[in-house]
User: What shape does this take?
Amino acid sequence: MTIDRMVLAFAGTVVLLGVALAYFVHPWWIGLTVFAGVNMIQSAFTGFCPAAMVFKKLGGKPGAAF
Assistant: This one.
C-alpha cells in the first residue's frame, strides 16, 4: 500500500471515528472531524502532511502525492 492510500484511509478513519464519538459520547468530539478536514485542506495547498511523514518513517512505499 502506498503512502497516499495510507493517508486517505487514516483520514477517513479519523472522520468516521469523530462522527461516531460525537454521536455516542459527546457533541464536542465533532472537533476531531473538523481537525481532520482542516488538515486535509491544508495539505492540499501546502503539500505538508504529518501523517504522510509518519507513514514514510514506518516504511510505506511512496505514491504520487507523498
Observations:
- DSSP finds three helices and no strands in the chain.
- The mean pLDDT is 96.
